[in-house]
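I trust your eye. Have a critical look at both lines of this record:
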Amino acid sequence: MFNFSSQRPGFFLLFPNIFGFKGGMQVYSAFLLQALQRLYPHARYRVFLKYDKVTSPRIPARSHTRFTCLGRFPRWLQSLLMLGGTMVMGILERPHLVIATHLNYGVACYWLKRLTGTPYWIVVHGLEGWDLAHPQRQRALRHADRVLAVSRYTRDRLLAEQDLAPDRVDILPNTILGHRFQIAPKPPYLLQRYGLSASQPVIFTLTRLARYKGYDRLLRALVKVRRHIPDIYYILGGKGGDASRILALAEELGLQDCVTLTGFVPDEELCDYYNLCDVFALPSTGEGFGIVYLEALACGKPAIGGNRDGTVEPLDYGKYGCLVNPEDPEAIADNLIAILQGTYPNRTLFEPEILRQKALERFDFPQFCLILARLLESSCFVRAGDCSARELSGLHKSQEI
């Protein structure tokens, strides 16, 4: 068993960033740090953040956690410092375990293990690990002491495509803080902001603006939806470099008066946006999992996702959501119309409390902590205080990243 009572760090954590942009990988990394700190409060942590310039002033200083932020350097130098910093500090401090939440950082983990024997884990989310042909990253995967996939879909792809031992590839799925997402009426301030009536049907998408996310096909589907539901309104939230193209497509399709791009949605408004909508839609082709589906379900909203990627897991293979061919605008339109008009055959989608309950039973933060604790204990780490599910259920009510 590893003993965390010594002065040497228990964990090195290699993250892209957690204090600025909040994509799926960033949210996962923040939850992983929180879970480790709760499970092993006396361990020491050194956290390398490639893209963050400074830590958030909202985060209280923790005596056992040190952040190394590399975002103030040029991009090419960030990569060198991530590799060099991990190697140098790893040799000097000899952590018990290194965990990288991006596959690219596994190369540094591999070389540190070669030099010092330090074990390491790599988290694989989705696209970065699918069809992987980079020889150094493949080698880092093969030599990892444990590979954590965020979904069964990603695990299956890794095992099919890479030379990995199945007993070293486990699933630690995405999670949410269930108390932050509640079922509520449409927020008056958002209705006023967008000039909507309370009875007006709204479709909502929240995502990084990247083409594989499927919102362009959703726009094409909206043309048909509008013929059946004339007052439909579509809100696309999220940052990215594709906004101008999407606005041009909306204008080309004659949808400019019923489509809004919000840009970044702040955390304090996130739950309200889910409650503003009547259906959440993200017909993507490249999701490793999709935290946004869980957030929508926790607000009791029916969700539409693609049937060709990790989306199938938060929607439980269609039990608690609608899965469609993400490349078929006609199918997307037909299912949106059925949900909005209340004719969709799976009646569970119209039971908000059930949608919320099932999402939290499987993916609330205490479940994430329990799975992580079992994985660490099976790797000969000290037991995590024998925490029960009930005890862990109070963890998320403390200070959050």
